[in-house]
Amino acid sequence: MTRRRRIYEGKAKVLFEGPEPGTLVQYFKDDATAFNNQKKGVITGKGVLNNRISEYLMSRLSEIGVPTHFMRRLNMREQLVREVEIIPIEVVVRNVAAGSLSQRFGIPEGTPLPRSIIEYYYKSDELNDPMVSEEHITAFGWAAPQDLDDMVALSLRVNDYLSGLFLGIGLKLVDFKLEFGRLWENEEMRIVLADEISPDNCRLWDVKTNEKLDKDRFRQDLGRVEEAYQEVARRLGILPEGGPSDVKGPKTIQ
Ligand code: UDP
């Protein structure tokens, strides 16, 4: 981890300078945080699993024409991504009431929503990621109206595609968070999906039992957290050989 220049360290990932200009290496840690950093812990093997899960989901999305920053996985914990200018907005898509939506409106967890609901949060640890409206986003210049239109259209496509994909392996996509970035290519700018898609930022419930197979197991101290992430990877058919405990560090895979 000392070979490359560290560009940024977040709660669950580290970004390093990539091998070529315009690329970054995204390193997945086992660290977990919740409630804006108030709860901290380590989920052994999480980084390895999230690297695989996000690689898989980003690759499938790319195949259906959703542009993403993902280029390729480098090893157990690292992936090569395109350097983008991150838009400081978290886009949350919800299909079923849970988490902050249930709390805010007093809707019992598990209530199906009449239609998919999109929410925006301004990325700011100091401000505790406040919920914002389209008006705030465009008035404060965090994203242009056209950027926002693209983000919404992409988020809905991701929701449709991933809802079906997860349903096929017996999982309900309750809600998830996406981040987007601006990718500059020959003077042209495109909005692309960035960050990661994993049980750290999706709620995934077993269709039959409603068992939670995501970060809520950590947030709510439900136990068997790593097993839940492993189960998601297993159902996707991508459980790393050697298991998630094979965390000896970067080992380049062809
Ligand atoms: N989420 C996330 N990062 C955040 C906040 C939320 O990835 O900083 C995800 C979360 O995992 C869930 C969805 O966004 O899948 C909706 O989260 P919610 O607003 O209910 O907040 P929470 O209950 O997680 O605080």
From TrEMBL:
Catalyzed chemical reaction(s): 5-amino-1-(5-phospho-D-ribosyl)imidazole-4-carboxylate + L-aspartate + ATP = (2S)-2-[5-amino-1-(5-phospho-beta-D-ribosyl)imidazole-4-carboxamido]succinate + ADP + phosphate + 2 H(+)
Keyword DNA-binding: no
UniProt-listed SUPFAM superfamilies: SAICAR synthase-like (SSF56104)
Pathway recorded for this protein: Purine metabolism; IMP biosynthesis via de novo pathway; 5-amino-1-(5-phospho-D-ribosyl)imidazole-4-carboxamide from 5-amino-1-(5-phospho-D-ribosyl)imidazole-4-carboxylate: step 1/2
CDD domains referenced in this protein's UniProt entry, alphabetically: SAICAR_synt_PurC
Keywords for the protein's UniProt record, in alphabetical order: ATP-binding, Ligase, Nucleotide-binding, Purine biosynthesis
Gene3D superfamilies attached to this UniProt entry: ATP-grasp fold, B domain, Phosphorylase Kinase, domain 1
Highest taxon above the source species: Bacteria
A GO term, aspect molecular function: phosphoribosylaminoimidazolesuccinocarboxamide synthase activity
UniProt cross-references to InterPro entries, sorted A to Z: SAICAR_synt/ADE2_N (IPR028923), SAICAR_synt_PurC (IPR033934), SAICAR_synth (IPR001636), SAICAR_synthetase (IPR050089), SAICAR_synthetase_CS (IPR018236)
EC number in record: 6.3.2.6
Domain named SAICAR synthetase/ADE2 N-terminal: residues: 7-235
Keyword set includes Nuclease: no
PANTHER family, per database record: MULTIFUNCTIONAL PROTEIN ADE2 (PTHR43599), SI:DKEY-6E2.2 (PTHR43599:SF3)
Protein family according to the UniProt entry: Belongs to the SAICAR synthetase family.
Protein name: Phosphoribosylaminoimidazole-succinocarboxamide synthase
